[in-house]
Fold:
Amino acid sequence: MKGETVTAADPPYVRIAAEIRARISSGELRPGDRIPSTRQITKQWGVAKATASKVIDVLGREGVVKTVPRVGTVVAGPDAAPDVPGKATRATRPARVPVRHLSAARIAAAAMAIADEQGLAGLSMRGVAGALEVPTMSLYRYVDTKDQLLDLMADAAFGEIEYPPAAPESWRAHLELAARLQWRVYRRHPWLPAVISLTHPRVLPNLARYGEWTLRATRKLGLDLEAGAMVHLMIANYVRGTATNLDLQAEMEQRTGLAGGSWVMAQFAAAGGSAPRRDELPEVVRAMRPDPGFRMDLDDLFEFGLRRLLDGVGVLVGGRSAR
Structure:
């Protein structure tokens, strides 16, 4: 399709390839820059993994891009100088940071950008150094270990929370807002739930601030200190537990190329030889509305569960759920 007019009637892989080709032609992506990965294509354009793979295959056969071992797929060209592993694209990577201007905060920000794009599996000290365009060893002046880096990242993520000037007056509204603030942080950084420990929490400034702000709500319940802390931990654990599905959902859709409904139908088809009719499905599966476009909405699930938890807290404090 190179050089031909692309219309809305063309297959998705043709249209996506044309968009990436246009970004290369405009200079937005230059020789050596990485193009969107299959995971990024599936997320950005809402297509299956197989379609995303076909996009890259088409561009590769045209000679527009090439695959570089341990780097990925980059724009081809006579002056191509591929990025090192872990480096962001030209459009998203931070400006080169002189070694003398390095700081723990800059290192954490670069690490978060990599983890947001590639997950924790793609995070390494070498990759962070590549993103900042500094020698890897220079990072160790500010960060001793990868565990310390994860702590810095977690604290920076919770530092993004914007609290209202005044907390809600009722305990329920206060706890609802606290849970949603936490959920939004996990939504922005799907790797974060894997870093946060409920049983072995790290004493970090921004996490401590969030905990203190949330505990103020439990003081409105009229419970003793221990019971109030348990309410706080129960809700925090619910939010974190639900959020662990965010990264897994993206990984499963990338790995299988199927949304939730298609995946459920495929399981029955594999077991029975053909896709069953809707009325043949078990009741619990029918309730999930399995169709090729079905996708479990984690935001809806989070809100539903949060309301039920707070209803229970209302019972605990004597039916004062509306206060």
